[in-house]
């Protein structure tokens, strides 16, 4: 939940002066992080089925990829 809050804060703070590419990356990150949290809650309430463990690991990887894409768009925008 804290990670999701961090993503929302990031979106509010940097959305004013960022490129369309960075805004898109932030939106993708937010959607993936929300889906990742939903998978985690489903796992908690259903007793951690194996298929959800795989989905959760895939989601964790996608969250980090999306976070790095935000960073890369900021670097290319400012560099």
Description:
By secondary structure, the protein is mainly alpha-helical. The protein has one domain (2-78). Helices cover 87% and strands 0% of the residues. The protein has helices spanning 2-14, 20-46, 50-78. The mean pLDDT is 84.
Percent of residues in β-strands: under 5%
Kindly give the count of domains: 1
- State the end-to-end CA separation: 32 Å
Compute the number of strand runs: 0
Structural class: mainly alpha
Q: Note the main sheet.
A: none
Return the string of H and E elements.
HHH
Rg of Cα set: 14 Å
Return residue spans where pLDDT drops below 50 for at least 5 consecutive residues. Answer: none
Helicity range: over 70%
Indicate the mean pLDDT.
84
Q: What is the count of helical runs?
A: 3
Query: Which of globular, elongated, flat, extended, rod-shaped describes the shape?
Result: elongated
Which tags fit this structure?
mainly alpha, single chain, 87% helix, 79 residues, elongated, 3 helices
Q: SSE layout and pairings?
A:
Blueprint: H1 2-14, H2 20-46, H3 50-78
Short description:
The protein has 79 residues and is mostly helical. 87% of the residues lie in helices and 0% in strands. Helix 2 (20-46) runs antiparallel to helix 3 (50-78).
